[in-house]
Design a protein that fits this description.
Layout lengths: L7 E4 L14 H13 L4 E6 L12 H6 L8 E5 L3 H9 L4 E7 L2 H8 L3 H7 L1 H9 L3 E7 L3 E2 L3 E2 L2 H14 L3 E6 L6 H12 L7 E5 L6 H10 L4 E4 L19 H10 L8 H15 L6 H11 L1
Parallel strand pairs: 1-2, 1-10, 2-3, 3-4, 4-5, 5-8, 8-9, 9-10
Antiparallel strand pairs: 6-7
Length: 301
C-alpha cells in the first residue's frame, strides 16, 4: 500500500478542542499552543473571532494570539465567520482564515443561523479581505457523513458544497465528521465521489471519535491518498450544536499511527503528550487519547 510520504497535521485543540471548556484561562491556552509548537507542530488553529455571545470561551482569542511565543515557522489560523472577525484576526497577525459551513441544511441553520447558500455568500467579503492581504482561506464542511438532525448525508451534497468553497477561493477543504458516525466504508464512499472531481491536495479530513472509528477512518483516508489530517491534542473537543458528539481524534493517536506506518511527521510524540497532560490537568480531566494515557503510565513506572 502506497501511503502519502508527507503528512500535514492541523492541530485544532486550542480552538475546536476548547470551545466548550469554560474553566480554561488565557494563560493556559497560551501555554498549550507554545507547548504544541515546542513539540514540532507547525499548523496551529489558535482561536476564533466569533461573537462572544455565542462562543464566550473564544472571547480572548486576540489576547491569546498576541501572547504566543511559538516557533518562527508556526502557521496560525483562526475561525473568521464574517468580515468583522476577519479584520480582528488580521490585526493579530493571523496568516490563515477559516470559514465554516455544512453539508446539512438543518445543521447550518442550528450552527450559524442561515442556509448553506447564505453562509457561503457571507464569506465573500472575508475572502476578498484575505486576497487583499495575502492570507490563505481554509474551508470547513461539517456533517460530511451524518447530521444529528437529518441523519445520513449523501456524498453528492458534500461535493456540491466543496465545489462552492473552492470556487470562492479556499485553498483547502476540511471534511468534518462532526458527530463521529463515519466508518471506513462510508469514508471510502465519500472520498471516491469527491476525488473523481476534486484534487486530492485540496482535501483534508477532520474526524470526531464518538464511536471509536476515527483512527480507522484516517487509515482509510491515507490509503486513498489524503495527506492532511486535523486532530486535537489529548482528544479535546466536542460540538455545542451536536448533542453527544465527543472530542476530535487525538493528535497523539494519529502520530502513533503514522509512525507505525513509517510516515515521519517531525513531531515529538512525548513533548506532544506532555502538552496534552498540562491542559487536561488544568481542566481536571484525563486525556481521551489511548497513546497519551499509555505514555503517562509508562512515565510513572
Amino acid at each position: 500500500m502506497a501511503y502519502p510520504t508527507q503528512i500535514k497535521i492541523v492541530e485544532v485543540g486550542a480552538r475546536d478542542g476548547l470551545q466548550n471548556e469554560s474553566k480554561v484561562t488565557t494563560e493556559q491556552k497560551i501555554a498549550l499552543l507554545n507547548g504544541l509548537s515546542e513539540a514540532g507542530v507547525i499548523h496551529l488553529e489558535a482561536g476564533a473571532f466569533v461573537s462572544p455571545k455565542w462562543v464566550p470561551q473564544m472571547a480572548d482569542s486576540a489576547e491569546v494570539i498576541k501572547g504566543l511565543s511559538v516557533a518562527d515557522n508556526a502557521q496560525l489560523s483562526a475561525l473568521t465567520p464574517n468580515l468583522k472577525g476577519a479584520e480582528a484576526a488580521l490585526e493579530c497577525g493571523i496568516t490563515e482564515f477559516a470559514i465554516f459551513t455544512a453539508a446539512s441544511e438543518a445543521f447550518t441553520q442550528k450552527n450559524i443561523n442561515c442556509s448553506i447558500e447564505e453562509s457561503i455568500d457571507r464569506f465573500k467579503p472575508v475572502v476578498e479581505l484575505a486576497i487583499q492581504h495575502d492570507v490563505k482561506v481554509r474551508g470547513y464542511v461539517s456533517c460530511v457523513v451524518g447530521c444529528p438532525y437529518e441523519g445520513d448525508v449523501q456524498p453528492e451534497s458534500v461535493l456540491e458544497v466543496c465545489k462552492q468553497l473552492l470556487a470562492l477561493g479556499c485553498y483547502e477543504i476540511s471534511l468534518g465528521d462532526t458527530i463521529g458516525v463515519g466508518t471506513p466504508a462510508k469514508v471510502k464512499r465519500l472520498l471516491e465521489v469527491l476525488i473523481k472531481e476534486l484534487p486530492l491536495d485540496k482535501l483534508a479530513v477532520h474526524f470526531h471519535d464518538t464511536y471509536g472509528q476515527a483512527i480507522a477512518n484516517i487509515h482509510t483516508a491515507l490509503e486513498m491518498g489524503i495527506s492532511t489530517i486535523d486532530s486535537a491534542v489529548a482528544g479535546l473537543g466536542g460540538c455545542p450544536y451536536a448533542q453527544g458528539a465527543s472530542g476530535n481524534v487525538a493528535t497523539e493517536d494519529v502520530i502513533y499511527l503514522l509512525e507505525g506506518l513509517g510516515i515521519s511527521t517531525q513531531i515529538d510524540l512525548e513533548r506532544l503528550a506532555k502538552a496534552g497532560w498540562a491542559i487536561c490537568d488544568a481542566l481536571n480531566k484525563p486525556p481521551a487519547s489511548k497513546v497519551s494515557l499509555a505514555l503517562r503510565a509508562k512515565c510513572k513506572q
